[in-house]
Amino acid sequence: MTHTRIRKFNTRDTYPEQNLDNDLCQAVATCGGTTLWMRGQCPQNLDDAKSIDSHDPVEQTHKVMQNIRQLVEEAGGSMEHLVKVVVYITDVRHREAVYRTMGEYIKGVHPVSTGLVVQALARPEWLVEIDATAVIPD
Question: Cα separation of 56 and 70, whole Å?
């Protein structure tokens, strides 16, 4: 099974004024497989739920994306099976840093993406949370 990525694009073309490089698409069609619905991932350890000791949006995003990758792999998949991400940030000024960092993990994947700026996340030290969905082939 392969996912059909409809209308692929890169954010460097759609947001030329920003220094972004994310491979995304307008829609993803899947057939069969196992859908993995992940809880919104935050900059904390999966094993003990302790927040990382950083207030840097890049470091926090690396941790979030590492968690997503780990969960997908634990379910038997890989990042290429990611179909959707919803990115929550608490400060629009962190957008480029968060999306550049996320882009390192989704290069060539082209998931659909929604981004939101929110007033706060569950813990005051969190700057980013990413909700992800993957469909892993049978």
Answer: 21
